Amino acid sequence: MRIGIKKGIVGIGVMALFVTACNTDRTTPGYTYMDDMYRSPSVETYAEDINPTFVDGLSAMKPVAGSISRGHQPYEFANSNEGYESARTMLVLPESYKSEDVRKGAKVLYNNMCSHCHGTKGDGNGTLAVRDKFAGIPGYDNQKLPNITPGSMYHVLMYGKGMMGSHASQLTEDERWQIVSYVWYDLRGEQMASVETEEVSTEVDDEVVTENNNH
Question: Are residues 125 and 26 in the same domain?
């Protein structure tokens, strides 16, 4: 009889222990033996007014005004018609992206990111165009797009234009310039200015400056 009562008391005690350890708040584990093993003491990143270290109580601090994140390259042309026109006339293809080796690697990037719309030949007959998913996709030739420049193409990759969306999040600055170079020289067929032509042009400019100074 006494043994049964003792067992009953022990059983009730154990049940009471389990009940008191439970908690209706699902964000906490209830009563625990070693609390730090169950719940991290770290401060929640975006929780408000709980971090006494900073004035606003937030652990996720805003960047200092004017700071630039590592690897980010500022782009000075606005996402507007005026910005597009400025990029078209002022933004030039860097010399380091004009080599044949760079363009060979850029072909892979172009086929992965652009050919499904613009086609592997740059004629606007990509898979989506052939399947009538999109209409009016232009080719890169001088007849269809006579006024584009490397600068305008880079601008479109940054912000998008018409039905084409921005590719700034999918492509790095380096990859964007690689694709522009490949399209400009290999698909559009533009001729690269020779060193001799550039030297002659420089000499003519020097002569004109000299003549103006003499006058």
Answer: no
